[in-house]
Amino acid sequence: MIVKMNRVIHKVAYGSFLLGVASGVSMTALIFISTLMRYLGGRPLRFSDELAGLLFLSLTFLCLPHVLNQGRHIRIEILINLVPLGIAKVMDFIGVITLLTFCSIFAYESWNFMNFSFSLNSRTDISGILLWPWMAIMPLSMVLCMLVQITHGLKQPAADANLTEDVI
User: Fold this and answer.
1) Can you give the residue range of the structural domain that contains 101?
2) What are 63-91's pLDDT values in tens digits?
3) Which of 4, 48, 51, 72 has the fewest other C-beta atoms within 10 Å?
4) For the chain, how many structural domains are there in total?
5) What is the pTM of this model?
């Protein structure tokens, strides 16, 4: 049962990653088309800046859970490599607790912010894009990050050793 749940969480994280990548590709295409229209046609897409910002938000938050799951996130390994193994394990544990605490607080606060936006029916200024669905990505991403971390237990996911490059 737990193995199936872990597999589902990892697949959802990967699906989220693919949606984030699609957002990045869409954002790039939108900016490219808007730039072409600005310089070739004299008039850019009027909604491109707002939509590009929302797509960037999607790219960032939708990719976080998978990147965490693969151990490819930014971390300060120089300290871990300098201390004895016992202290390194304690530092890793503190990092996990910090991550879970941050994700919990961020999910709670962003959920409240999204609810407030929903209650006001907030929209973007120029194109009138409804904001709360985009804002819902933030708490959902943080909850998924917490679930990913829980599947890895009390230690941070390790990066694939074949992909790691040491920089000297």
Assistant:
1) 2-151
2) 999 999 998 877 777 888 889 989 988 98
3) 4
4) 1
5) 0.87
